[in-house]
Specification:
With about 120 residues, the protein is mostly beta strands. Helix content is about 0%, strand content about 60%. Strands 2, 4, 5, 6, 9, 10 and 11 form a 7-stranded mixed beta sheet that branches. A hairpin with a 6-residue loop joins strand 5 and strand 6. The N and C termini lie far apart (about 35 Å). The model has no long low-confidence stretch (mean pLDDT about 95).
Amino acid sequence: VQLVESGGGLVQAGGSLRLSCAASGGTFSINAMGWYRQVPGKQRELVAAFTSGGGSTNYADSVKGRFTISRDTAKNTMYLQMNSLKPEDTAVYYCDAEVRELRSGQYFTFHYWGLGTQVTVSS
């Protein structure tokens, strides 16, 4: 399974971006999926995520009310709508997924990361 992020870029403070993460490859179902971000010298941190089973969402306090996570299960695609962006939102944003994948006739659970997409917010 591959996760491919898109939608990052350069935006002014107060602007918006929409990130996408598409999962593809093989036979699989997604247990949980989320967005993380990382800046140089700091640990990767959770931004927003669907919990296992997709029944609820979690958001970092710093993005509540500004970011919205959503997904299209038919397309195996997750989105992150980011509004009212701030310079402190500047980071590489990564897609993360826990996947139940069919291999050699059996289902196994794997954890995958995308390669990341850069978001830069100028002041």
